[in-house]
Amino acid sequence: MTALLSIRDLSVAYRRDGREVAALKNINLDIASGERLAIIGESGSGKSTLALAIAGLLPASARIGGRIDWQMSEFRSPHQPSCLRKTPLSGRDIGFVFQDPSASLDPVMPIGKQIAEVARTHLGLGWPQAYARARTLLERVRLPDPGTALRTFPHQLSGGQKQRVAIAAAIAAGPKLLIADEATSALDTIVQAEIVSLIRQLVSEDGMTLLFVSHDIALAAELAERIAVFRHGELVEIGATAEIVNAPRHAYTRALLDAHIGLDAEPMLRRAGASA
Amino acid sequence: MNSPLLTVSGLAKRYRRGGKTIAAVDDVSFAIEPGETLALAGPSGSGKSTIARLVLRLIEPDAGRIQFEGDDFLALSGSALRARRARLQMVFQDPLAAFNPRATVARLLDDPLRIHGIASRAERPRRIAALLERVGLNADLAPRAIHEISGGQRQRIAIARAIATNPSLIVLDEAVSALDVSVRGDILNLLLDLQAKERIAYLFISHDLGVVRAIAHRVVILDAGRIAESGDARAVIGAPQSAIGKALVMATPKLHRTTAS
Known about the structure:
The complex is a heterodimer of chains A (about 280) and B (about 260). By secondary structure, chain A is an alpha/beta fold. Chain A contains 11 helices and 9 strands. In chain A, about 45% of the residues are buried. The model of chain A is unreliable at about 270-275 (pLDDT under 50). Chain B has 2 domains: about 1-85 and about 170-260, Rossmann fold; about 95-165, no CATH class. Chain B contains 10 helices and 10 strands. Chain B has helices at about 50-55, 80-85, 95-100, 105-115, 125-135, 150-165, 180-200, 210-215, 235-240, 245-250; strands at about 5-15, 20-30, 35-40, 65-70, 70, 90, 170-175, 200-205, 220-225, 225-230. The interface of A and B includes residues 216, 258 and 262 of A.
């Protein structure tokens, strides 16, 4: 498979209280065009920093070393025939879905306009066509009554509906790469499953590459073809999902898998039950 | 069987939103035995956290009764209510949001001991050290500010603060949901140890059926403010009967491991 991007010796450090704190250390990673890759880690693992670095959204104060090489031929599409850029454009070539949809949506702008604006800016559409596209996108993310929904404001929607709108805005310009950073972590289990299934469907229909950042290894395993495990800013191991889940090479990956409490887990209550 | 520690009957709470009345909690009844863990599970908006706040009397119900340690808990007021509150404690999801972030660990543990008159000023430093030890922390953590310590340590402090007043029931509202998985197991084990040693009952509120199944004796599954089903935690989660119970089990991520670890 063609690599959509190759990350070489990527290091990122943030300045905090006058000190430099390493968030990512010498990361080497290829992301194949069209694959679904999960980035797994606990807090402080660097997983969100990696997502921001790929999207070009790191704060200006971050110190970045190494490089990200993009296969720009993968980004040519009917919408942008004469693309001569060396790096993709965030918002057009890369769609980003954050954890908190309330923070990524403008609270005082109708959601239809927010989605149409992305299509207008990046695809050069006029407002009527951009609104028509927004309506189609709201249908695709399965928001009830898309025609009326265009005129609603974020606060009128539930958390799951807001995340659907954020996804619609993220894919409005037809990005090649979709990054979802803990996109379902604030949602309840049922809505989370719906959003994951929606992401899977959209990625497959549009032939997008997916980078799914999560703390939940079970959720990641249900969605991704490959899993990369991060810890303390380092890439611990990467492999096909079945390999990582069934034959982890690294002790930390095994510890993460063992810490998962699934519906088939050994009850922890045993001791208390025995003494009762 | 002993008389229940907590009995909730016909509990109801309505909110008005945009001219409409929404039943956040609608005719909910359950009981918790001493030393038992009862879990409340359900999707967002099912009423789990509203029930927690009603039981803690952070908000007042529109209807229903709450019996706690044999008394009509809703009828208590003033000093009688304050005294009884020592027996009914709480731990929330995010201790950093619940506590003054600049307060020291010692200060946070001193509060309940002082307010409930549990220990004299001279005795309190020793009691604070003992509390830290009971939750598996080193006594030299006492002078540290709460924002300086790790998330797992903070949740241990929240538990230490809750057990400081010798409670019979602790309401745990998504108390392990924000923790890293490597820390979560330790905190759950701490809660189980405390329960085994001190016979504390837990009202354990969680959206995570895996965790509920692992640590709760019984579960109540809520949907839109009403009880959809309830019973033995492993029996209910193993074979849910209600539509919402089935949907929750179906939606829970599953890790298909072929090798035993």
